[in-house]
Amino acid sequence: MEHYQLVTTVESASAAGKLAEAIVTARLGACAHIMPITSVYRWDGEVTREAEWRLVVKTTRDRLDELMAFVKQRHSYDLPQLVATELAAGSADYLDWITAETRRP
Length: 105
Known about the structure:
Blueprint: E1 3-10, H1 13-25, E2 31-43, E3 46-60, H2 61-74, E4 83-86, H3 92-101
Antiparallel strand pairs: 1-3, 1-4, 2-3
């Protein structure tokens, strides 16, 4: 089975925690790592620097599309970052754990 990590950013630690818990509860991600970051980007013609919180969610290819839709539906941003990358390698036990924790009930 293919495994992925999905990256998104949100506006606060509270929003990150709530979204991460909802994702794991829904079994769309096995885990979510949350970290504070500073983002610099252009929005509405202006360069902006903002504190944000980054979520990195581990999931499977089977659950990726549903995870992306779930995050987009619950996200407060007009244009949320939703970037997925395939995991090229990992320990078999860890990848098996991701598969087990994201299996549909």
